[in-house]
Amino acid sequence: MSAPLPFHLLPDNATVGDRGQLVIGGCDLLDLAEEFGTPLFVYDEDHLRARAREAVAAFGDHATYASKAFLCRAMARLVHEEGMSIDVATGGEMAVALAADVPAGRLHLHGNNKSGDELREAMAAGVGRIIVDSFDEMDRIEALVAAGSPAPRVLLRVTPGVKAETHEFVATGQDDSKFGFTVATGVALEAVRRAEASDAMDLVGIHCHIGSQVFEAESFAKALAVLATFTAPLDLPELVIGGGLGVPYVTGEQAPSISDWAAELTSAAASLGITATLGIEPGRAIAAAAAVTLYTVGTVKPLEGIRTYVAVDGGMSDNPRPVLYGSGYETFLPRAVEAERPQQVRVVGKHCESGDILVRDAQVPSDLAVGDVLATPVTGAYGHSMGSNYNKVLRPPVVFVRDGDARLVVRRETPEDLLRTDVG
Q1: Domain ranges of the chain
Q2: In CATH terms, is domain 7-44+289-420 a member of 2.40.37.10?
Q3: Residue spans of the chain under pLDDT 50
Q4: Is 325 annotated as a binding residue?
């Protein structure tokens, strides 16, 4: 395959400059690489806002951003400004959202093993919903309320027994899961009865999440069918179907838009007689395609008769998805975004691991050379958020671009940052 990069994998506001270079949000990517260094995450701010508005247009106040996809204070403010609530899964995510001045009532606390401290802080702050995941968590909530904490509004997370067609590590709706109360065994109904009888919890609905990077709407419809039967006698006002809508990462992949997905969910719920207000929690569908990651090529190593390795200045520390899930990505040179890509190489990082692979079979222009800025698109979700300091690398900065302006929202780490928690 030698075709240019498919343009639909780039952010909404990507254009080609007068020298054939890629421009996003009015900003030349090569200029950004020079100003901020590499690796660098570049987000199209208007793309993010457009996807958030699309979710809110379909579900109003019940559109919630899954912040595990990507979170910083600027991102929290952005989705809040566009009308979304925010799903936080740890005390750390909650702290970032609150630091961005998002009202606690617009936060929903998730997690399969919330600590007593996390629950106490969330209840004291007045989070809008706690998504309860276990009977042990109910014990902790009841103890906190008995000690004076305000009783929270809760949803119960249930597992409907639907296995989404996705990687096993991100499939969560099957019976064999660490998440939620299982419907098929009767445990979910037992949890409902306990929550209804407890003065420590105001039960307002049921929550379900079948997995991540799901392309088939049929999987969500199957989950709704199970939930319709389960929730019918409960008469609860809210039903959250979670997130998980997939996005295309490589040539040939296609996925429904948020609007198409919403229409499928709404239609399926109506046909099943579901009267509860539906909610969704997109994360990847909001953030993934909004960003590209820029790297600098440091080494080109041809192994005759085997392959050519192209090593860049990032790696599994800024994008662990290829290592964890075998995820695929495209590659291109921002200096010539429309160029043919006839050469196949393996793009690797700088870490001391043979498995430190960013793109296993990458197509690149034949004139790729040391010093080139190389980019991977669709890196706005689960790259920066899953990043690490392995080999004590410094985590990359994040820039939001809009109308020709580049705004630094997360600075690059420094060696001093690495030593800040090292008390010797």
Answers
A1: 7-44+289-420, 45-287
A2: yes
A3: 165-173
A4: yes
